[in-house]
Amino acid sequence: MDYTRQNSDDSLPQSQKFRLVDYFPKARSHTAPDDCPERAAKFFIEAKENLHKGNFETSVMLCRKVLDIATREILGDESKKEQLSQRISMLHGKGLITEQMKEWAHIVRIDSNGAVHSDEEFTKDDAEEMIGFTEVFLIYSFTLPAMVEANKQSKVQQ
Q: Is the dihedral of CA 104, 44, 113, 51 positive or negative?
């Protein structure tokens, strides 16, 4: 310990006196579903990191941001002036999401407004549920269509 105090540093000194056995806590690597828009993926990963750190309200708010970015990406220019609630309904109206996904997206939107505009507290379970839905939304909206397109392309090339 005397050696460590005298040569204080965030890392262990390179010498025969020390040997790194393991890290605690274990580093966690969070990912977003494949083929998500870059900004949606960035904020989805941040939501998962916040969940891991116990920042449940922030995690829920970021899920809303991910949906906001994702719906704008899917609808393109026609949705620039629309609010999230209108974009969710537009996606359903165009047959791009199911009735159940529309309902869940509205739940995320409404609950996340509670995280932003009120004193409402969210639990780990609440945040996990929001992240779970957001992940399914991203997979359904971006990953699956990319998989289908890749499959079509591979069949054309054969």
A: positive
Per residue in 119-153, pLDDT tens? 778 899 999 999 999 999 999 999 999 999 989 88
Average pLDDT, the chain: 86
What CATH number has the domain bearing residue 120? 1.20.120.330
Closest CA to 40 of 129, 144, 126, 135: 135
pTM for the whole structure: 0.79
Amino acid at 37: P
Q: Is the Cβ–Cβ distance between 124 and 51 less than 8 Å?
A: yes
CA angle 128, 132, 133 (to 5 degrees): 125
Residue 125 within a domain: yes
Please count the structural domains in the chain.
Answer: 1
Q: Specify whether the CB–CB gap between 101 and 139 falls below 8 A.
A: no
Q: What is the 3-state secondary structure (H, E, C) of 6-53?
A: HCCCCCCCCCCCCCCCCCCCCCCCCCCCCCCCHHHHHHHHHHHHHHHH
Integer Cα distance of 97 and 147 in angstroms: 17
**Candidate from 6-15, 25-34, 83-92 with smallest mean pLDDT:** 6-15
Tell the residue number behind the tokens 């779970």, with chain if given.
132
